[in-house]
Amino acid sequence: MECQAAFEKLKRLFAEEPVLKHPDMDAAFVVQADASDVAVGAMLLQANGQVSFSGPTFQGFLLEARNADRLDDPPIGSFALADRRQSQLLRCGHVKNSAVSHTSKSKKNHMDAYWIAPSDAPKKVQFLLTIVQKYIIYWVKIPGPKISQAGILPFTTIMFTNWTIPASLPVSSLSQPGGGDDAYFCISEVYSVNMRTAALVGRSYPDFNSKNALENITWRLADGLIQCAFRRKIHLPASTGRYNLDANYYIFLADGEISTEGEIYKHQQQPLITNGKYNILGPLKDIGGSRSPFLIKMHGALMFVGWITAVSIGVIVARFFKSVWPHTLLFGEEIWFQIHRSLMMITVLLTSISFVLPFIYRGGWNKQAGFHSYFGSTVMALALFQPLMAAFRPPQQAP
């Protein structure tokens, strides 16, 4: 009785929509065949759309269709295979054939499938794609385009790119001189990643926005690396505190640690900052950057020239060339002494200039610089003390 009831139900379902409908003679037909030791069967069907994705070489994938307005809901619709050798159908949730995955870890760079919309499909559908390049490199839920059931696209392409950010807590920010920063936080939360936006003013703690303006957020967390990707509108209301993207900005990237409670700690090193302003909407290119501003670079360069070059040469001349030029004079003084004194004065001058540059950059004393500030002040004091001692030193003929 149970078998007969199941058979009658199957016949009834085959005679109802959406299984039974007139074919679209302008659309492509799909033939699915199967065979066993006792029977051979085939099915002629039409899928609502072909889904294709391609990109760099990958080993595994998982393709699903979701409600574009509620991506956390279960998958919708079903798929038909385009290549049974490299893809297979999976049941996700309670929907049969609601996902497509790989059959082996062989390398591939393109895959096709046919998606069949359900009778109760939502107004907008979005495909989500998970890609595995290798065991420790993968991308989770890459968002595809949103499609409408009223005008479904016959070909839907999902592209993915390899973007790896070597950081434990990446913070990407758009900055303008004299104003705040528009920051985007990629925060690791054990087995997931949280993407948040915030406004940065000076060196205060980030003011996270209660309303997230980001869409199509995807992330990857593997082997100590975090990848975050998102989309947002080019123009947002001024009340959101977000910058419009059709302008030029400095871009900087910082990374740091977080506490077990999720509190963000100060980044451990100077952020990576672009050397100039760039248009976010411009073509992709390697913009470069540096973790040290120009004034800080000059500070280090001048200290290096002064103490590694000038001082070293001055000491060597005073130690080894005094006997080589015993009676050679320059402006009334022995030449070795003139060279030694000139190099020492150059060192004092370079040290003084270098000492002032961090104050100009920071706008005053930096309490967060640690022992470096105190060490530099001590070096500056000793550098000034040396010519004072030389000025009061008696001449050689003095008793």
TrEMBL record:
Residue stretches making up the Cytochrome b561 domain: 261-399
Record's keyword terms, sorted: Electron transport, Glycoprotein, Membrane, Transmembrane, Transmembrane helix, Transport
Localization per Swiss-Prot or TrEMBL: Membrane
Transmembrane segments: 301-321, 342-361, 373-392
Superkingdom as given in the UniProt entry: Eukaryota
Gene Ontology cellular-component annotations: membrane
MF terms in GO: oxidoreductase activity, acting on metal ions
Broad class of the protein's primary localization: membrane
Stretches assigned to the Reelin domain: 1-166
Cofactor: heme b
InterPro entries cross-referenced by the UniProt entry: Cyt_b561/ferric_Rdtase_TM, DNA/RNA_pol_sf, Ferric-chelate_Red/DefProt, Reeler_dom, Reeler_sf, RT_RNaseH_2
Any one biological process term the GO annotation gives: intracellular iron ion homeostasis
Name of the featured protein: Ferric-chelate reductase 1
